[in-house]
Amino acid sequence: MRLVREIKNRARQAAPQVVAACMVAYFAYHAMNGDRGFYAWIMLKQERAQVTATAESLRAQRAELESRAGLLRGEALEPDLLEERAQAILNYGSDRDHVIFLPPDLRRPEKPL
Fold it and tell me: Disulfide: which of 12, 36, 88, 97 matches 93 by Cβ 3.0-4.6 Å?
């Protein structure tokens, strides 16, 4: 009887500390692994870096396409570029042109206009 009373007494003394430790462990776990935790923050930073790199690449590609399209406008028409595009689109070549067929692995990718 005395042993049971001693166990209950010590359990009452230790219960608040155990509850506090469990709460600290719960909040610490969710601070690291939760939806808005440390690891989620790291993943968002990496995703932001990838999106920024993709945006920069697309900006450069757009600037290149705008410059090529600017050469085809009426005020500054580049005849060589116009002829190149017409031949590519119409699949047309002159009698004086020399056509060299390359294997697929040596061809450069065609840039869309």
Answer: 97
Q: pLDDT band at 111, cuts 50/70/90?
A: low
| Of 73, 91, 94, the residue nearest 82 (C-alpha) | 73
Spatial neighbors of 81 by CB under 8 A, at least 6 apart, are 68, 71, 72
Residue type, 68: R
First CA to last CA across the chain, in angstroms? Answer: 92
Q: Kind and range of the H or E element at 12?
A: helix 2-33
Sequence letter at residue 42: I
C-beta separation of 73 from 85 below 8 A? no
